[in-house]
Specification:
The chain is of the alpha/beta class. The chain is built from six helices and six strands, in the order βαβαββαβαβαα. The chain has two domains: about 120 residues, Rossmann fold, CATH 3.40.50; about 50 residues, no CATH class. A six-stranded parallel sheet has the order 3-2-1-4-5-6, with helices on both faces. It is elongated, with a radius of gyration of 18 Å. About 30% of the residues are buried.
Length: about 190
């Protein structure tokens, strides 16, 4: 038995990686992909657009046009993810959310939705980062408040969310370690 998976943002960097992984899995079936309006991939089969043999489903720009799915993998934008969340709630489909940059109110909406459907939401899905966050939190609890913390990052020039969700997760680890709710954050 296969779990039917759709991917939002399927032609992006992460979307392509996810499509390859789902396609290669023995217990998953890639049933469809979503892209933004105007994407050159719209209307193509996943097979042709992403060079995945036997992935015949079309890439569409409206979640309503996707075939039935059980899980949506969403690495898009906050606005798109929230729209997809509403559809997943209606359909009873689970979501894996890798989108970052949600406001506090938007994060609450996702949290509330998780009481109705299964949602996995993380700023970064790397095991190494999870370990790093723990180390940052521990270290922050040991150094004094007179110590400044800087988080520097660099990305490819198509990065949509900068500062990244990973940078925000590191900031939260510092705040948690120092037991502060609100700290000074400077971007730029």
């Amino acid at each position: 038995m296969f779990i039917k998976v759709a991917i939002a943002g399927i032609a992006g960097r992460m979307g392509r990686t996810l499509a390859e992984m789902v396609h290669a899995a023995d217990d998953l079936e890639l049933v469809g992909g979503l892209e933004r309006a105007g994407s050159p991939f719209l209307g193509q089969s996943i097979e042709a657009g992403l060079s995945l043999p036997s992935a015949k489903s079309k890439i569409v720009d409206d979640i309503a046009d996707l075939p039935a799915f059980e899980v949506l993998l969403d690495f898009t934008t906050t606005q798109s993810t929230l729209a997809h969340l509403a559809t997943c709630l209606t359909r009873g489909a689970a979501m894996v959310i890798g989108t970052t940059g949600f406001t506090a109110d938007e994060a609450v909406k996702i949290q509330q939705a998780s009481t109705q459907i299964t949602i996995v939401h993380a700023q970064n899905y790397s095991v190494g980062l999870t370990l790093l966050l723990d180390l940052v939190q521990q270290t922050s609890s040991k150094v004094g408040a007179e110590t400044d913390v800087e988080i520097l990052e660099w990305h490819h020039n198509q990065k949509v969310d900068a500062p990244s969700g990973t940078a925000y997760a590191l900031l939260e680890a510092v705040k948690t370690g120092r037991k502060i709710e609100h700290g000074s954050s400077v971007h730029g």
